[in-house]
Write a structure and sequence with these properties.
Length: about 475
């Protein structure tokens, strides 16, 4: 579970931005203020943490997000400062290793991108341990072209405290397996870094290219047969928890794909994420939950899946909508665009195994009443059995008003909602402002200009005109603009 994210020198964000996440976190702000950059920072981490690329470099372009290059991502495209990202996730750290009694422990993962002849860095900081030990690796070039992650010299003390090992001789060899005594725990950290080769550093670097993450040679030597150790925790618990927290972060973009009328059953773009059509066709329980939620949202349709066998085209499937009032069946392509846009949101909110949903513009093509009903969906999913959190980039007034109403009614804790306003100053520098909410569903902090006040301004301007003309006979006619 990701509890906070941060970044610096990233796109329009010059200074460090730290965003604490709640079960429901809303991002507001004017167009091009930098809201989407918040989501893109998480997508960049998702496509790199746990990745095992051959050259160990960060990936800037993938199906998840296209950020171009490290220079393209940098503030004003200036590379004299490092673009950095960090996020905090919860891991199960055993008490024997210093974890808390409930087993939850916070680990902060940091990425520092290359800048002006300085290479990439990755850091892990254990926030709930004494002195918050940090282990950091540098990407270094070994020989003419080999790229390998090297444990930084100033991380050796923290490394020894966590992993133990022989402090007097880092060059000692393991006679049984030919594995350097320092290599064993360092290699356990493969999978925590975006590369498959890791070395150690102490005065001068040591590299171990014969041990690779896609092989099985080092795995048997690194995983203890019994008991907990930092070696086992890094090789199993930590690596899995960090990668899993991002794997279960799902992104729903601002324009959801409109399904074709029919699609062949083999048409799956990404086997790890089968998408709306395949998931609803294969999972009857998911389809039932989806239809129940559509009914609660006041949508008079239910989703049905139909399979057609064709001797030439093979197996063909279609998702169709049945009108619950008339019984008429129609294709998704034949109903209002808003239905197709809300379906992925409702489905992902009910699909098991999600941890954090990143949603852009959930209100797209939706009536304000339905936007408000979506807020209730977010509440029931985030605080119900699924425990899926939401990070939502939106302009919807109806969503926040419904959430504030539920707080006033006592049906939602004010601590379960966080509103972050992304603003830009006159120089184009973006900042993320936390707008606090009290127990009565009222904002403690003043809302920046350009949102609620626009509606109030329109209403009060008309009210003033009506008041000024109240003593005049005849029909009220608004004054013309000067």
């Amino acid at each position: 579970m990701i509890t906070s994210i941060g970044f610096r020198w990233f796109r329009s964000f010059r200074d460090q931005a730290e965003l604490e996440l709640a079960p429901i976190t809303l991002l507001y702000g004017q167009n091009s203020a930098g809201k989407s950059s918040v989501l893109k920072s998480l997508l960049f981490l998702k496509q790199n943490v746990g990745d095992t690329s051959e050259n160990g470099e960060f990936s800037y372009t993938s199906r998840l997000v296209d950020l171009g290059s490290s220079r393209a991502m940098a503030y004003l495209h200036r590379s004299h400062e490092p673009t950095s990202f960090n996020f905090v996730c919860m891991v199960k750290l055993p008490v024997e290793l210093g974890g808390r009694e409930n087993g939850d422990s916070r680990v902060e993962v940091g990425f520092h991108l290359p800048h002006d002849e300085i290479d990439s860095q990755v850091s892990y900081r254990f926030k709930d341990l004494p002195d918050e030990p940090t282990i950091m690796w540098d990407m270094s070039t070994v020989g003419e072209s080999r790229r390998v992650w090297i444990l930084k010299n100033d991380s050796l003390d923290a490394f020894r405290r966590l992993f133990g090992g022989v402090s007097s001789s880092v060059d000692g060899e393991d006679p049984t397996g030919g594995i350097d005594l320092w290599t064993r725990p360092v290699m356990s950290c493969i999978g925590m870094l975006p590369g498959i080769q890791i070395g150690t550093y102490s005065g001068s670097y040591r590299e171990f290219p014969r041990f690779r993450s896609d092989g099985s040679t080092y795995r048997a030597a690194l995983v203890p047969t019994s008991g907990w150790s930092w070696d086992a925790f890094a090789a199993n618990g930590l690596r899995a928890a960090v990668a899993d927290s991002l794997r279960r972060t799902i992104h729903i973009g601002p324009a959801r794909r409109l399904l074709n009328r029919i699609e062949p059953s083999a048409m799956v773009a990404d086997p790890s994420d089968p998408g709306l059509l395949v998931a609803l066709r294969q999972d009857d329980v998911l389809r039932t939950r989806l239809n129940q939620r559509l009914a609660s949202l006041g949508i008079d349709y239910e989703v049905v899946s139909r399979r057609v066998e064709d001797s030439v085209l093979g197996e063909i499937h279609s998702l169709e909508l049945r009108n619950v009032k008339s019984g008429a069946v129609t294709a998704l392509t034949d109903v209002g665009y808003g239905i197709s846009q809300v379906l992925p949101i409702v489905m992902e909110a009910h699909r098991p195994g999600q941890s954090l949903l990143l949603i852009e513009q959930p209100e797209l093509h939706l009536h304000p009443k339905l936007q408000a009903e979506l807020a209730d969906l977010f509440i029931s999913t985030a605080l119900g059995g699924a425990r899926t959190n939401f990070l939502i980039e939106t302009h919807s007034e109806a969503i926040i008003l419904r959430l504030l109403k539920r707080i006033r009614e006592g049906r939602l804790s004010h601590e379960a909602v966080r509103v972050i306003y992304v603003d830009q100053d006159s120089e184009g520098v973006s900042t993320a402002i936390n707008l606090r909410i009290d127990e009565d569903g009222e904002f403690i902090d003043r809302w920046p200009s350009g949102f609620f006040d626009e509606r109030i301004k329109e209403l009060l301007d008309d009210y003033d005109l009506v008041r000024d003309n109240a003593d005049s006979p005849g029909e009220y006619v608004p004054e013309e603009d000067e």
